[in-house]
Design goal:
It is elongated, with a radius of gyration of 28 Å. It contains six helices and nine strands, in the order αααββββαβββαβαβ. It is 32% helix and 35% strand. A seven-stranded antiparallel β-sheet has the order 2-3-4-8-7-6-5, with helices on both faces. A two-stranded antiparallel sheet has the order 1-9. By secondary structure, the chain is an alpha+beta fold.
């Protein structure tokens, strides 16, 4: 009996252990190489139609719903409380790769406006066309490449009781193109 045990233990060499480790590493490397690893995270776009329908059904005011077309990519859509006001938010990436967002709420506070236009300052007024025709918007400017690099605010007297904020990194012409697609839905 002792003889068989000695032979078996003698067969456990460092060389055999190295071969075993190499075999396991080859299997791990093959598994890793065959696993799908996209270079970039692929995120499913939000469901705009469903969220917009929910917001229109729930909001006591006409909801501004943009429909900019296939070349614009939706990024975020929600209707929920934000800084004390029930808020409709929808944002897109423009065909030029710039960010455009719309926030709309009634009875907004300065804290709400401060969060939406973080770091931006009022710089004047500007006339742009929206769902109710040409209107005078308050223009805001923020830090370059921030979410409020450019901002436009339309107060409650012009929208039937809500405050609408457009903001992002897009050019003024892209904001106007985006705004031309907005419908006020009840």
């Amino acid at each position: 009996m002792e003889d068989k045990r000695s032979k078996r233990l003698a067969s456990y060499t460092v060389r055999n252990m190295v071969f075993s480790v190499l075999a396991v590493l080859a299997l791990v490397l093959a598994w890793w190489a065959l696993t799908f690893n996209p270079a970039e995270s692929q995120r499913r776009p939000p469901e705009v139609t469903q969220s917009a329908t929910y917001a229109v059904d729930e909001a006591p005011w006409p909801v501004w719903v943009p429909e900019p077309g296939e070349s614009w990519t939706p990024t975020v859509v929600w209707y929920e409380p934000f800084e004390g006001a029930q808020t409709w938010h929808i944002s897109y990436v423009s065909p030029d790769g710039e960010y455009v967002a719309l926030h709309q709420a009634a009875d907004v506070t300065s804290a709400w406006k401060g969060e939406v236009l973080k770091g931006a300052e009022e710089v004047g007024t500007l006339t742009m066309s929206g769902p109710d025709g040409a209107q005078t918007w308050t223009e805001w400017k923020g830090a370059p490449q921030s979410n409020a690099e450019r901002g436009y605010v339309l107060g409650p007297q012009a929208t039937g009781g809500t405050t609408v904020v457009l903001h992002g990194t897009a050019s003024q012409s892209e904001f106007e193109e985006f705004l031309a697609t907005v419908l006020a839905r009840d």
